[in-house]
Amino acid sequence: MAAVDLGELGTHHDPVDMAFRWHGSAIRVNPDYSDLDFIEFLDEAASVDAADTVGAQRATMAFLRSQVHPEDWDRFRVLNRAHHQQFKDLMELAAAIVVWHTRFPTGQRSGSPPGPVSTEARSPDAYSSAVTASMRELKGRPDLKMFIWAAHQERERARQPG
Fold first, then answer.
1. Which residues contact 63 (CB under 8 A, 6 or more apart)?
2. pTM for this prediction
3. Is 122 left (phi over 0), alpha (psi -120 to 50) or beta?
4. What is the pLDDT of residue 53?
């Protein structure tokens, strides 16, 4: 029996074109960063034992490295040391990049004025469901739960009008 050919699948996305200010210096996001980097981070983190802080930190380091432009990595590290950045600071940065990157598929807002602001309660979207599922899988990993929760909170704040 011949295999079924599903045809060409996948959607082309341009390289990531983002940067952020980090202690007064512009740091670029890796143009090759994709959602797969985050998914791989979650997969690796889920396999790290709750008591293995070194494993958790290694997974986090690899994830940060996937997010920061390779040409800016050494400067990023120097800035982190010079400004005594802590794990929480780095996780908040990583979460912010994830949040901003997930907005890309919607593109820029149109020039037309927005419609009336909806005040009715929203049902949980797929992102919220994914957050809940990820949190369940990371039982015993408060450090990684904090990262996912911070990304979720940042995304919710970004949705608020204002």
1. 37, 38, 41, 94
2. 0.64
3. beta
4. 83
